[in-house]
Predict the 3D structure of the following.
Amino acid sequence: MDSPATRLDPQLIGQLNDHSRCVTLADLPKELLDKILGYVESFDYIPFLLSCKTVYHKCHLTLFCLKPVRLQYTGSSHNFRYNRNLQTTWNLLQHMSNNPEIYAQVKVFQLKNSVSVKESVKPSVESKNGHSRGKRFSLKVDYSKIPSSLISVLPNFVNLRYIKVDIENFTFLRDFLEALPITLKGLNININVANPRFNAKETQMPDIKCRGLKTLAFHSTSKEPMIYGKLKSRHVMKVPSRYLMEESTFSDLIREKFEHDDRSIKKQPNLKYCGEMMALLIQQNVSTFYSIDIRGIDATVIFLNRFVDCQMKNLRVIKLCNLSIPRLRWWLPTLEQSNLNKRQFMPSNSELSLPPIVVVFSKLFTSPPQNRDVQCRARFFGDPEDRWFSMGGEATEFWEEIHYQ
């Protein structure tokens, strides 16, 4: 029989048993879980979220509402990283179809392709008998259906405010523009391949239903810049030397040569089609655009187009890069004439009313040349003296970050 000294209180025994039990991640309080998962990429936290009901019920509202949902929609199913990411995307699409209330929770969406999700591929190790010992992955689903599945459900995100997408296929871009939710406010399109796939037999314009966009960023981050009708040295050689000192005259002569030489246009039907789609997007949202950002691409592709010859009553800023400089005079004066009126830039300062401004960012403006800081030059629409002024430092950061009020 145990002595009183060795006899333990039953309540104390219960407390010891509780403390001896392992504490799992699901046992943590919601606030701490939100903090932990806030540092984890969507590719990694979504599989865990969908596999643990306790964590899902604690955190799914916070994660879907406050964090961008990043998903990969193209890639090779034989690569481990791509296979895992695509499986995550497929699982989430299936989960959303069974729980449609999630569509209304997502505010920010990012769609990545195989180019933007990079991973070093390790060579397969050969065994002694010469057979490869590389991992083999069984194809559970047809991942080629993911892009079309995303397009079909995109209109269901009724509270989506911002979406960023990587593009490697202009047909997908057309379908994507058609499916944009009507509540969308910000759109960022990044072309990250040198030659996006293009089918010359499928060039119909998208039926764009989105009418409330405030900011558009259209970028190309591929190694090959998107320049429509590339200028050849022979074009410059034929221009009288006295005209080379006059920018406007030189630009007009090059434009005349460009318009009468359709060989370059015929060689670039993909750019023509892409430019027409983006111009149509601008036209459909012309009354709401606050900021338009076009970099890595010659803006002539878009603005020298029948769709954008109109007034933009809310436009504040157009951001460009050095690729747009040679042909800037081809379309900017026409756009200026339709948008000369002053607009209030900041709600907090009713006295600050200015016409729209065009800002050109380029490393060409840095001094000394080895300086990596990107500076910019800008001018306001309708400036009677046609003056471009330089900016750097905090001023450059201000125009980089401004989107819409």
